[in-house]
Amino acid sequence: MEKKLGTYRWTVVALLFFATSINYLDRQVIGLLKPTLETQFNWTESSYSYIVMAFSAAYAIGLLAFGRIIDFIGTKKGYIISIIAWSGAAIAHAFATSTLGFGVARAALGLGEAGNFPAAIKTVAEWFPKKERALATGIFNSGANIGAVVAPIMVPWILGAYGWEEAFLITGGIGFIWLIFWWVSYQIPSKQPKLGAEEYAYIHSDNEPEAAEGDHGKTISWGKLLSVRQTWAFVFGKMLTDPIWWFFLFWLPSYFATTFDLDLKKPSLPLVVVYTLTTVGSIGGGYFSSFLIKRGWSVYKARKTAMLVFALLVVPIMLARYATSIWPAVALISLAAAAHQAWSANIFTVASDMFPKKAVSSIVGIGSMAGSVGGILFPLLIGYLLDTYKAAGNINGGYNIIFLICGSAYLLAWVVMHLFVPRMAPVNLGEPTKSSTVTV
């Protein structure tokens, strides 16, 4: 049956997968170079947290802007602008000569990288029926893990062979290669000549047709989007959980180095294991809710049940404080990181389930901006805790508190989302109803 339908939509997912891999490769580089750059530029934990915050703040602004831009100009042009901006910024790190210079380059990277998820989620909404969206999202979202797996192998090798500057130059240049394939291969379904009629009909079998290219400018106002409960459910779901993933990206290498003496100048097997298993979580999480839907569950019941399961799987990370060797810690962190990616695949899909295609990028931008706001505040706390406990000669005490926060964040997010939208009904963007609106 699949062969009769055609499979070009999966080619589109492959493009999104590689873009997301490059996105996370570029943002992961600085975490792996942190010990080297700390020595060269005399960074404290707080100094590094400020650099992370610069990325987070710019990423937040960029998400809001790109969400709107992509709904206005379309996914193809939006992705092109995004990847040119972030790849150029990644390369610019090589020319930084001060902590301020890294902060500026990091902010530019955040602005550019912000376009990836609004564009990718909107692309999935354009190319997939609801019953396949979580799986498609899980597949492309697993690119985040591949980028994080490649980085611990690639970056130390480049560092040892050439230097930290070349690590930024080489990884930053990869995005321009992807750009060629996107430019040549991508069109929306109605304009893609390689797409068969059967597959086109299947893509639109349970949702509204995509907007024509000329209709992208007809966007829905932020005021209207912020007036519905579904928006706020997505906002708080992202705000409470995104900062945990950023902790895994930006501080996990340092945690293994300080707690278990992991040498970050060599390829790091523990990091490879963690990020490889998150790939299983991302694809498996998308598959799980899609499987429940195929078994007859409603779309929203399947998503909410899956997200509760994944929230519970993060809780054991609280036990990492008792790990006396690296591999028990790796196992607990791997489970939590995999569960995060499973959660992520579903919460992104929830946005495209609840909102019409013409609003998807804007909603993803708003919610992801909220996640970035959390990503701005959480590093402040992390830097304070680690510096305080390091001064007292017990930096692991700081990590123990952080793991307690990580373990409880997803259950809190699930409860808040449930309170806002107990039934997760599709949003009404016409005349607001009493059941779907909130006072802002």
UniProtKB/TrEMBL annotation:
It comes from the Bacteria. Its main location: membrane. Keywords: Membrane, Transmembrane, Transmembrane helix. Residues 12-425 form the Major facilitator superfamily (MFS) profile domain. The keyword Membrane applies. Pfam families: MFS_1 (PF07690). The keyword Cell membrane does not apply. Gene3D superfamilies: MFS general substrate transporter like domains. It is a multi-pass membrane protein. CDD domains: MFS_ExuT_GudP_like. It is found in: Membrane. The chain crosses the membrane at residues 47-66, 78-96, 133-155, 167-184, 232-252, 272-293, 305-323, 363-386, 398-421. PANTHER family: HEXURONATE TRANSPORTER, SOLUTE CARRIER FAMILY 17. This is MFS transporter.
